[in-house]
Amino acid sequence: MHRRRRLLAAAVGIISALALFPATAEADNPIVQHIYTADPAPMVHNGRVYLYTGHDEDGSTTFTMREWRVFSSADMVNWTDHGVPMNLGTFAWADANAWAGHTIARNGKFYWYVPVRRRGGGMAIGVGVSDSPTGPFRDALGRPLVENGEIDPHAFVDDDGQAYLYWGNPNLWYVRLNADMISFSGSPTRIPLTTAGFGTRPGNPDRPTLYEEAPWVYKRNGLYYNVYAAQCCSEHIAYSTAPGPTGPWTYRGTVMPTQGSSFTNHPGIVDYKGGSYFFYHNGALPGGGGYTRSVAVEKFTYNADGTIPRLTMTAGPGPVDTLDPYVRQEAETIAWGSGVETEPAAEGGMNIGNIENGDYTKVRNVAFGTGASSFTARVASATSGGVIELRLGSATGTVVGRCTVPGTGGWQAWQSVSCPVSGAAGNQDLFLRYTGGSGYLLNVNWWQFTPGGSSSDVTSRLLGVGANRCVDVDGGATASGTAVLLWDCHAGANQQWTTTASSELRIFGDRCLDALDQGTANGTRVVIGLCGGQASQKWTLNADGSIRNVHSGLCLDAEGAATANGTRLVLWTCNGQNNQKWNRA
Asked: Which residue numbers mark the site Important for catalytic activity, responsible for pKa modulation of the active site Glu and correct orientation of both the proton donor and substrate (predicted)?
C-alpha cells in the first residue's frame, strides 16, 4: 500500500483554505482533493467528460511534474480517478517537465499532445496514443512531433476535417495536422500577436499583447474562439475570436480575472448535457499555490451575442444527472473526499486507501428511488479493518447502514462484505465514513446497493430537523382532510410514512400526504387524502433534506418555523431553512 503524505486531513481544513469560495458545508471545487492537479484539458466522449491534467508533486517549489492523470464524470460532480495512463517514461527521449497537454479523439483512437524536455535539449511536443480515453498511452512517434522550445499544445478538428495543432509561449504557433494526427503539412506558422487581436499588455513594450500561453481553440455557431492565459504574472484568462481557424483574431476581453493563490491559470471549455463548462486551476487546497495547483470548474451561459461572460471562482456547479447506486460504482468516484488517497488495484483499475478513522468520501445526487435494502463493498485490510458508515446529507448525517470490514490479510487481498440498509430513499448525497482504531484501516475498490424488495423497506418516521418532532396525523384519524402536524415522536401507525415507487408518502395503507384542495399557494394546509395518484400527492425527497410537492413546487414546512406539539404543516416556498428539512427516524 502506497504511503505518501496525506494531502487532506479533514474537510474543515480544506474549507478554511477555500476562502475565495462561498461558505458551504461541503464545497466541490477543486474537483480533485487527494492530489494536486493542473492544466485541465476536458474532452466529451460517449456521454462522459474526460479530464486530462498534469500532476504537481507534493511540496513542489517549481513546476515539478512527472506524470499526467485522467478523471471522468457523467454528472459534473462525481469524478472517477483513472490513475496515471502516461508519464515521462512513456517518452524515452524525454527527461523532465510533464507539462500542460491536450487530448483529442479521432480515427477510433485518442491522441494526447504534451510538452516535455528533450534529453540534452529544450522543450518539445510529443504525442501519446491509446485505444481508450483512459489509456494506457504509448509514444506514437518515438520522437517529438514538433520542436521549437515552446509549450502548451492544443488540437482542434474543424468541420471540414482539417486538424490543427496550436501551441506557444511566448509566441502563438499552429500547424495543419494530417489525417493521421501524428504528422503535419507545411511548416509551423506563427500567428501575429497584434494588440487588436490579443489585447494590450500595459507597461511592457517588449511584449505588448496580453497573450501568454495555453491556447484553447474551438468553434461555436460558425465563430472560432481562442481562450488563453494572459499577462503573466499573475495570469488571468482572456479570449479572442476569428472568422477562421487561423485568424484574423479580434480581442474580446477577460473570461476570468486574476484571482486565487496560483500565479498561473489554464483554460478548457466544453459543452455537456445542455450546459457550457469552463475548467481552470488555482491553489485552493491546503498547501496549494503556484506550484501546487488544483483543477476546478464553473458552469456558464454564453451571452446572446455569443460573447463569454466574465466568470469568477465559486464552489462549483450542481449535478446534471443522478448517480445509480444499484450498479457497481468505483470507490474512487468521488465528489469530495477527506483523508483518502488512490492507488492501482491488483484486481484492475484503482482503489481508495490510506484510510484512517473519521475519513470519508462523498458522492452527490445518488438516486435511491423507493429505497435500498443492502450494501456491498469490495474491501481489503492488512490490519484489523474497520467500519463503513453510510450516512445521508453530511459526514455526520443520518446513518442508514453500517458495514463491518474484517482484516483480509493484505492491502490487496480483496473480499466482499455486505450489510442491511434502511432509510435510503429519494435523491441523496451519500457519505461513506470510515471508522475504527488507529492507523490505516482498510482499502475499498468498489461498492453497490441492492434495491429494496418491498415498501416496508422504506417505511419510517419523518423527523423535523428544526423541531426534533415527527410528522404526525392529528389524533390518528384516517379521514380524508385530517390535518398533518408536528408531535413528539412515537411508534404509532400515525407516524409511519412509506415512500412508494410513484413518489407518494403513504400512511394507514391507502392514505397519502396531500395538499388541501390541491392548493398551490404559500400556507396551503397539508392533510391526508385517499391515494389517487394526483400530483398534489406526489413528493420529491431532495438531497438537502427538504420534501417538495410535485404539483405546487412548494416545500413541506412547519408553519411559522414553530417547534411545539400541534404545529401545523403547510406548503411554503422552498428556502433551505431547518423547518423545511426532514430526516428519517
From this structure: 152
Beta bridge partners of 540: 548
The domain that holds 571 is classified in CATH as 2.80.10.50
Q: What is the pLDDT of residues 394-437, one digit of tens each?
A: 999 999 999 999 999 999 999 999 988 888 999 999 999 999 99
Please tell me the total count of domains within the chain. Answer: 3
Judgement on whether residues 421 and 491 belong to the same structural domain of the protein: no
Q: Grid cell 451561459 — which residue?
A: 301
In a shared domain, residues 570 and 436: no
Of 315, 201, 313, the closest CA to residue 257 belongs to 313
Record the cell numbers describing residue 46, joined without a space.
460517449
Q: Which amino acid is at 478?
A: T
Calpha distance 484→373 (Å, rounded):
28
Whether pLDDT at 284 is above 50? yes
The residue segments making up the domain with residue 399 are 329-456
Cα-Cα-Cα-Cα dihedral sign, residues 218, 170, 36, 4: positive
Which CATH number do you get for residue 161? 2.115.10.20
Q: How far apart are CA 221 and CA 529, in angstroms?
A: 52
Q: What are residue 17's phi and psi, to 5 degrees?
A: -75, -20
Supply the residues annotated as catalytic: 39, 213
* Beta-carbon contacts of residue 108 (< 8 Å; ≥ 6 apart): 131
**Position of cell 496550436?**
166
The answer to whether the CB of 513 falls within 8 A of the CB of 520 is no
Residue range 425-470, pLDDT digits in tens: 999 999 999 999 999 999 999 999 998 844 334 678 899 988 999 9
- Is 579 in a helix, a strand, or coil? helix
With CA atoms as reference, report the closest residue to 31 among 306, 420, 227, 319: 319
* 90 and 40 belong to one structural domain: yes
For residue range 51-69, what is the model confidence (pLDDT) as tens digits?
999 999 998 999 999 999 9
Q: Tens digit of pLDDT for each residue in 104-154?
A: 999 999 999 999 999 999 999 999 999 999 999 999 999 999 999 999 999
